Amino acid sequence: MSRLARLSIFLSALAVASACTDRTPGPTGLGITASRHGAPFSAGLASPAWQALAAASFIGPTPPTGSLNPLQSAHAYALLGVAQYLAVQGADAAAGSNGRSHLEAERGAVAGASAAVLTYLFPGSTQSFENLVTAQAGAGPGQPHPWFARGEAIGREVGAGIVARARSDHFGLPLNPAPPVGPQFWTSNSPTAPVAGGDMPGVTSWFLTSANQFRPGPPPAFGSAEFLAALAEIRTISDTRTATQIQTAVYWALNAGTVTAAGFWLQVATDDINAHGLSEREATHLYALTSAVMFDAGIGCWDAKLFYWLVRPWKADPLITTTAAVGKPNHPSYPSGHSCLSSSGAEVISTFFPEQRAQLAAMVEEAGLSRMYGGIHYRFDIEAGQALGRNVARYAIAADASGNSVLTAH
Length: 410
Prior knowledge:
mainly alpha, 14 helices, single chain
């Protein structure tokens, strides 16, 4: 069964908590121990249930804006993931010991932080978020445990801080920068449609020091032999598109109304969290780093898109067709946003679970090819996006490992 199919089933049967496992984990990275601190409490982790509830909320339709688009989704997941991890660190410091109190404090912190962030994002669904807090508070024997309530208070305070950050991070500003004029440059799908992601280069990042920190070099010059060869490759795919290629394009489309690319890779993370029996702190660390890195990769990607303004293949050659599921994204071609996010997310997950690196790399490659099969990207878009995403991820991973980053509680 595909990961997307499993996620659909998971969301339709959303549980208030994920089951704890005593399974011996395989080799892992970043100091993962798969420890539950030896406590006699197995109500399970709080964070995967909140990630699943977030995914369901992002898919919508949620008034007044409907489903979140891929950039909105990446932004929201990062707010949630970082809030969860910082809250768990705060709860650990307050609880001060292992055992039941420690676990309850972490679970409460996740619930409080998640409810605060998701209520900001979806104020009309506040009651559903509070219902999950209540359910998780009563999940174990003798509940509600006093340390759950203490952790919840810590989490709500942390969540309020993340919400304050979101209110001033410049995401969602109605910016519509004008592209240069010429056959080599992107043009909007319609005269009234703004460029998607026009605000992204000015959005506050989590790790990057500037939006152009990892800006790739220019794409092949328009009309050059290299450019024409890349364009001809997409024309050939368009003219001879197979059923398998269409299926791949559909699988990886991940547009608004789906989990989107960020949600897909976070579900990969959830699968690994469950399979390896990670602790709450380890799980929220993985969620936070993966989601923050993917959003930063998006910032870097759109910096390059709006610097080079490269024409899309179907406009460079009007005989190229696109697939209905993928559509015609209304932003420049170079580099591929899908590849920026996929490669960055996979790089983080591979660092936590190095035994899966080859498998995840193959998934990133397929995600990239899917955009060529859809008729919307040149091969060099994919390659540049993958390189940018990996560079952002490796930079952020090193910053996180230093113990003095945005993911470090102070």
